[in-house]
Design a protein that fits this description.
homodimer, about 350 residues, alpha/beta, Aspartate Aminotransferase, domain 2, Aspartate Aminotransferase, domain 1, 2 domains, seven-stranded mixed beta sheet, four-stranded antiparallel beta sheet, 12 helices, about 40% helix
């Protein structure tokens, strides 16, 4: 089976082998070695000299951690929103009592930096900005570096959902002054789902000292205390640490810049391929993501049928659209363990499946 | 290596094999089958006709879910506390703004039901009771059935940490009218850590509809909605579901009553064994746990040294004491995949290691 949803991504055999290892004491020296090793490698992959923590949860848990560790109920937060996941980020903040200003742009369309700047200029009370680096729901990558330049002009806290970009698309955490960056093990990291990885800047720690949102499981100051003794505050998903520690070696061996180039190349093949089949990209092409390609079809294509034919007749698993895009787009994930041939075979299957998915 | 801490517990080969399986789409039919199958088997093991959900987190995350789904800030909560984990449960409730009355009994000593009853009688405003079935920190099992009888006389909500008991020690969720019961995959369930399993009664759902504590990742009403389509709200730790679904088959094949009897037998061997070595049980013996034996030594035994000798010279890994019991007790876990011979070999190693751990 070719699993080409935008996460979970296929695990390389080394990761699967690591998953089969027997349990060890999570409060012993052997686990400490793995935790310290994975953390150090993650800091390289995050391009940060700051802290990185690994939480046992999905990426959404990491987003919740980003919010509750830095904010207080009543804090004003600006959410830059142009897809389902940026809306989720705003929902979490709102659920914990932040006053969220939703700066919404059309799904799949670029963020207007001018509007962001004007909003920040007009309201000095805004404490933090929620930004999504790669919108998995629309297959587009927001220009986080440019967003950061605006945000940092006003010296605000920048919280970033980079769940489906980090490790695949360049995101220099420190250079772009991202205060909290969140990702998930089942995306570019080539490990199974179940771990969220979260970086914390000095500025975020200062915010954390004032932040009054309730937190226990997500409390990153506890994670920091325990990491000093090579532990996590709560029992970690040990097997997933085995896998992640293994795939991080693969990642650093390949080299970040080579990985970014591979993702760019594979994504270009995907985009050219779908266009050559007469399909259109859902997002503005110059913002199209290097990890997930979101595709619109002519009205006469039955997208659920197309996905079914691909799965049942070609053993290729892709994703549909989420929320308001359900039934309107399909999405091909090409992140983590993926190379040119993988995506070419998806395109070939797609070319065969398309005629079978025509509406009468 | 013999891993005999009170969790993570050793995984049987079937579970480790399942962990090595490749990823699948968590929004597809194949995962739905596994999720539905595991959920149905968990309902049998929980002895409930109510709902059971599987969250990607450690057991502590499940405790947080129990609190935030049923309570509002300002709610009065009675915490029955006689160990580190019951204190954790109270800390979580307090962190989210509950007014927690801590009914504290000496660690390792029985809960005085009379005091519980008088406290409930004296304060009609108490909304919920936090109870720990098995205190992993002190190696004792609270008489949850008796606690429930008192709590239900006053028709209060009963939230139960059964992380290290469920599936090993009888806990008939419905019969004892437990409203939320929490456990974790790395304990009696013989799977690796990373999943919390949580049951929800009708009464808990009614409380949930009124509960105002903030929740997003832990929102069990979202879990219920998604379960209806064979999904989890957030990307689940797929591999751990593979393992849990497998070990649940082993559990139901062996049969709950046989498993309870095996744990009782193994625990008796552990208790008799440590006593025959001149050591004492930390908790009151009639409350001693069938999943973890906590042991006090004479003052002339260096416990950290004992644990080190066991690990380095006998390949047996046991746990020390937590918080105020650090350096004062050691703990042998005997839950999940454990039989008479396993614990006998731990006792034999212990008999050899003890003389080596004598202080000068």
């Amino acid at each position: 089976m070719q699993l080409r949803v935008p996460g979970p991504t296929p695990c390389p055999p080394q990761a699967l082998k690591a998953m089969g290892r027997q349990m060890i004491n999570h409060r012993g020296g052997e686990f400490a070695k793995i935790l310290n090793s994975a953390t150090e490698k993650l800091r390289q992959a995050f391009q940060t000299k700051g802290d990185v923590f690994v939480l046992t949860s999905s990426g959404t848990g990491g987003m919740e951690a980003a919010i509750v560790n830095t904010l207080s109920p009543g804090d004003k937060v600006l959410s830059i929103s142009n897809g389902a996941f940026s809306e989720r980020f705003a929902d979490i903040a709102e659920g914990y009592g932040a006053e969220v200003i939703r700066l919404s742009f059309e799904w799949g369309k670029a963020v207007d930096l001018n509007t962001v700047e004007k909003t920040l200029e007009a309201d000095d009370d805004i404490k933090a900005i929620l930004a999504t680096h790669n919108e998995t729901s629309t297959g587009m990558t927001n220009r986080l570096g440019d967003i950061s330049t605006v945000v940092k002009k006003f010296n605000k806290l920048l919280l970033v959902d980079a769940i489906s970009s980090l490790g695949c698309i360049d995101l220099p955490t420190d250079k772009w002054q991202c205060d909290v960056v969140v990702t998930g093990s089942q995306k570019g990291w080539m490990a199974p789902p179940g771990l969220a990885m979260v970086s914390v800047s000095e500025k975020a720690w200062r915010a954390s000292a004032q932040a009054k949102m309730p937190r226990y499981y997500w409390d990153l100051s506890k994670a920091k205390d325990f990491l000093q003794k090579g532990q996590t505050p709560w029992t970690p998903a040990i097997s997933l640490f085995y896998a992640l520690d293994t795939t991080l070696d693969l990642i650093l061996d390949e080299g970040l810049s080579n990985i970014f180039a591979r993702h760019a190349r594979v994504a270009r093949i995907a985009r050219e391929g779908v266009k050559s089949l007469g399909l259109s990209l859902f997002p503005e092409e110059e913002y199209a993501s290097n990890t997930v390609t979101a595709v619109s079809t002519a009205d006469n294509i039955d997208i659920p049928k197309l996905i079914q034919v691909l799965r049942e007749e070609h053993d290729v698993v892709i994703a549909g659209g989420q929320r308001k895009l359900a039934g309107k787009i399909f999405r091909i994930g090409h992140l983590g363990a993926v190379d040119d041939d993988d995506i070419k075979s998806v395109l070939e299957a797609l070319s065969k499946a398309l005629p079978r998915a025509k509406k009468d």
